[in-house]
Amino acid sequence: MTTATLVPLSEYLSTTYHPDRDFLEGQLLERNMGELPHGRLQLIIGNIFENQRKHWNTRTSTELRVQVRPERFRIPDVTVQRRSDPQDLIVRTPPLLCIEIFSSADTIHEIQKRVNDYAAMGVENIWAVDPWKRLGYYASTSGFQQPEDGVLRVAGTPIAISLADVFAELDEA
Fold first, then answer.
1. Cα(128)–Cα(54) distance, rounded to whole angstroms?
2. Theoretical Cys-Cys bridge with 106: which of 7, 35, 84, 102, CB 3.0 to 4.6 Å?
């Protein structure tokens, strides 16, 4: 369930929420999370990136505030930055990749809104992964597209993640 409360930007930036919330022009939005498949998948994907960080020349964070516009902040489930990106407390440079993981209450429409914000910021690589349907997508303002071979990639990099392997690990939990 989404709960909205109007707060000033300065209050949002100086407050720690548990869990953190998106901020959209003064409105705080709770994020759907807290379910085992969501949390496990976030950890699995985060660990893959963390284990490959030197080879892929990346830094990975979970639930990191990303300022997509001056009065708009989103919190991707997984944010992948280039190692050359600034190491600010809040991400203001378009990350290499933003990953959204579906919770059981999420809809394509709600995830699409998040994708549109990342794309408007200049994020070129956006993935959405659904642990319930066991599907992964390249996400863009045009919608969602499944990789033909079941492997999500970031073009021009060695980054490649097999969805079959990720979901097999999820099933082991």
1. 24
2. 102
